[in-house]
Amino acid sequence: MKPQELCDIDDLATSLVVDVFLGFNTHKMNTEHKERYKCKSHLKPVIDEFIKNQSMKLAFESFWNRKYIPDHLFKASYKKLVRDHIERYMGMFYLDSGFRIEPCYRYSLENKVGAKVNATSHWHKDGIIKRLVGCVAELTEKEEDEILHVGKNDFSVMYSCRKKCAQLWLGPAAYINHDCQANCKFVPNDKGTACVKVLRDIKPGDEITCFYSANFFGENNVNCECCSCEKLCKGAFKTNEEQPKLGRYNFRQTNGRTNSYRSPDKSKKVKEPKTPQKKKNEVLEPCTPNKNPEVDKGEALLGSPYTKIIQKTRGLDLDQASKSPEK
Ligand SMILES: [Zn+2]
């Protein structure tokens, strides 16, 4: 899928499935056309029926209707793409899925109303949660400029150092939150998708989390609001010494992180965080595609810490050719 198609189809799928299930609107890529992709709450019976009969064919017959599908997607050429992507979300209701997207009232960046992914069955270390997938679409720099709006819809963008481009990453797995002691990690799947590998045993009800990076929420994740930080009185919950007066997440750290990924200067390599479960080539890392030097200031940057990056060659093959915002 091209990036704009992925944005449109993902917004459609989340509005038809996730938002209907949760009862409120969740993240959208098309910030200008929010109305088009609003929660269709009266479709709840379609989901209830699917949970009982597990028939994607029947569910899709209800969804594929001019009333719900925007005109530009209501075409034979899009039908399969739309169906497949809706099924990725409906996948959480399959009996064997082992996860559900649930409401999350934790993170200040989402004004404390967002979503998370919870396990619905036991998962054992090294297991793969196959239905918990994300779809990747590579972005040209022009598309980055056209599609991404800092702090508004850059919640799931990664930067591939191997391919030297930013990538949109959307699907059920884009609802996974960060945790400093994450129980899962993102791994490449079939072409154009990624899914989730289990790092330690998980029981039903546990939140499924991934580690975005060591400096995602400020340096050393000083502003991290994850559950592990709360338990260990770290990150945003650290009380025994003075915290930087950031209020919320700090762009400066994001900017520094970005520069370190994009800088051609090898001395600015990102250090390998000391997390034993990491392997090269299979790591999700955060980075804001920082093509806007002017974004160095202002409230618009608050969303930046959502921005994620898959760095395929962690710290070893930094993007030598990319532009450096410092020059
Ligand atoms: Zn944390």
Automatic annotation (TrEMBL):
Give the E.C. number(s): 2.1.1.362
List residues traversing the bilayer. none
Q: Which SUPFAM superfamilies match?
A: SET domain
Q: Which GO terms describe its molecular function?
A: histone H4K20me methyltransferase activity
SMART domains of this UniProt entry?
SET (SM00317)
Alphabetized UniProt keyword annotations: Chromatin regulator, Chromosome, Methyltransferase, Nucleus, Repressor, S-adenosyl-L-methionine, Transcription, Transcription regulation, Transferase
Q: Where is the composition biased (Basic and acidic residues)?
A: 263-283
Q: Transcription regulation as a keyword?
A: yes
**Signal sequence segment:** none
List the InterPro entries hit by this protein, alphabetically. Hist-Lys_N-MTase_N, SET_dom, SET_dom_sf, Suv4-20/Set9, Suv4-20_animal
Instruction: Please state what the protein is called.
Output: [histone H4]-N-methyl-L-lysine(20) N-methyltransferase
Organism, per UniProt?
A: Acyrthosiphon pisum (Pea aphid)
